[in-house]
Amino acid sequence: MVFAEILLNYGIPLSLVCAVAGLLVAGWLIRGILAASPGNERMRQIAAAIEEGAKAYLRRQVITISAIAAVIFVLLFIFKDNFLRDGAASLGFVVGAICSLAAGFIGMRIAVLANVRTAQAATKDRHSALKAAFNGGAVTGLLVVGLALLAVGLFFLVAVRYKGVSEAIKSLVGLALGSSLISVFARLGGGIYTKAADVGADLVGKLESNLDEDDPRNPATIADNVGDNVGDCAGMAADVFETYAVSLIGAVLLGHLTLDGNTAAIVFPFVLGGISIVSAVVGILYVNFRQGKPGAILMEAVAASGLVSAVLFWPVTKALFPSVEETGIIPPFKTHPPEHLYIAALVGLVMTGVVVIITNYYTSTSFAPVRRIAKASETGHATNIIAGLALGQHATALPVGFIGIAILLSFHFGGLYGIAVAVMSMLSMAGIIISLDAFGPITDNAGGIAVMSNLPKEVRAITDELDAVGNTMKAVTKGYAIASAGLAALVLFGSYVEELRAAWAAGTSASGPFKIEFSLQDPKVIIGLFIGGLLPFIFTAFSMDAVGQAAGAVVEEVRRQLKLKPGILTGTEMPDYGACVDIVTKAALRKMIVPALLPVVVVVIVAGSSQLGPIVLGGCLVGTIVTGLFVAIAMTSSGGAWDNAKKYIEEGHYGGKGSPAHAASVTGDTVGDPYKDTAGPAINPMIKVVNILAILIIPIFIKLWLARFSL
Q1: Maximum C-alpha span of the chain
Q2: Tens digits of per-residue pLDDT, 113-138?
Q3: Measuring CA to CA, which residue among 193, 659, 152 is closest to residue 427?
Q4: Residue 335 above 70 pLDDT?
């Protein structure tokens, strides 16, 4: 009883203590990274060039995004907060936007400090390099979960004090929108940057000039290394920050709407978030002290983190949702016993493991799918592309099937709130999962620094091995992010329906009764499904176009330099790295705006149209979730498999480097780059922007809808 009272009354503050502890551990890791040797003078010069390019891009990105965010803040304040007579939603938008940017920026800064230290550690042994790269990634992982939990928790506690629980929960939706919208910009901008540089560098450097990966004679090589940080580190950090924050907010919102304001239902998601910090730290320590193969160690760390979460979830679930016989202090959970909610939480943990295993199967060089693409490369470029596209389609079946099973189980054991618990449980693994993701670009950069610094081949062999593991880890984490985003969006759709029903009920006294139904027999629902289903395709089309056009500009610049300065290839003249950095920076900032604002414009048009309205908007949300999930999984799986098929051939299979099969695999990799690192991952925050904005605008449009559609 005492433990239950403590959790009920102090669960949220205790979760914030865990968040601060996670940030302190991140600070301890940063101290260790800075204390490590950054290598010789040449290594430090290259690392400084990468760091300078990354900082320059992010500064310009922050300025661009801030200008757009300022406009949205004003619109929110005028149309929503003025309607509600307060500024909570717009203030929450600012908090979410700032924290999302901070998570990405700090994570990127640590990554560019860790890359050169990883290269230097590789001169000692493999495990030292693994620790250096992983600890750099772990800083990002802990920052993401710590900042997200701290931002949502503090904002909620302050809002409760001044506005009460109900209005405080509604104001959290503004924070969710801020984090999601900024995440779309960060994902798109970073993805366009990194893949335009990567594709441009590969097309001219590898296919036309027969240069190796990260060859210092390639004028686009610094831009390529910068892109790894602003895309995979900053972009992914912002992406998962918003997924974590939105999932937490969605769970709190659903608990409030569906469980009659049960305090335990509001506290429970925060407590799960606090536990996630503890489990992430355990996984991080495991990697630091375990010896063995890098891939196996990282997978074992994920398992260890999940096991800690599974053990700690039970006592807090039992305490917050006791059975009727034990209650007396806490209102009982009316529909389901604590065992049911615990099972829903376990479903989320199991889903994490399932997604990791499935994605690893489709993207790792150790398994048949990637090797089939490598084999197909022997017969040409076209067969490589065909094999990669087919793999992406195949890779959708198992994840979506298991997501469906997870939805059925969690709904059976806890209703809509059970689904929210499963999502929050799945996100409890974010700390360790994002550590794996940031590990990838750090090892990639470390390999590039090793090549450009002329370090011994033995060092590059270590960084190549870690880079291959990092490629698989990046694909795994993207699969995790997509699956969790799909489940989180479903929770948000449930919140949209409940919010709409509540708002409608509040206005029916003046406008007459109206029964809200989302029936497939209603043409408006079908129209909404079509509109929503179309969004991911148009969104990815803009993203792919942006990468293709920017990459074309890089190709032309690299060709121009090699023609103007033939001494570059012989090593007697230096390339102008800054020219390529400038090209991709400008292209990324310019091209990210239209696709990022597309979901906002569509939702507002559908909501405000005289012929569409709330029913069509509901169908639009579902359509976006369904097609977005399939498109994102297919793109990221194909891209990851193409990349590792190239690396499999480079290991000496099917002719090795310089063979026709290798040339075909490079083509596949260049097609897969924008698939896996730009368009596919950016669908995650785009789906949630659509759903969050729909919830946020209900108070703005409800009077219009009541007047137009009431009977």
Answers
A1: 84
A2: 888 888 888 888 888 888 888 888 88
A3: 152
A4: no
**3-class DSSP state of 130:** helix
CA 668 remoteness from chain centre = 24
Locate 260 and state its tokens.
């009659």
Residues in the chain: 711
Q: Cα(113)–Cα(110) distance, rounded to whole angstroms?
A: 5
Cα dist. 526→207, 529, 598, 694 in Å?
Answer: 47, 5, 21, 18
18 token code pair: 């865990």
| pLDDT confidence tier of residue 381, bands split at 50, 70 and 90 | very high
**What does pTM read for this prediction?**
0.80
Spatial contact of 410 and 258, defined as CB atoms under 8 Å apart:
no
Task: Convert 190-203 into a string of H (helix), E (strand) and C (coil).
Answer: HHHHHHHHHHHHHH
For residue 94, the one-letter residue type is V
**354: Cβ–Cβ under 8 A, 6 or more apart, which residues?**
399, 402
Three-state SS string over 412-429 comes to HHHHHHHHHHHHHHHHCC
In the predicted model, is pLDDT for residue 499 greater than 50? yes
Confirm if 403 and 355 have CB atoms less than 8 A apart: no
- Pairwise pLDDT comparison (518 vs 435), residue with the higher score: 435
Find, among 338, 701, 310, 297, the residue nearest to 499 by Cα.
Answer: 701
Q: What is the DSSP string of 9-62?
A: HHHHHHHHHHHHHHHHHHHHHHHHHHHS---SHHHHHHHHHHHHHHHHHHHHHH
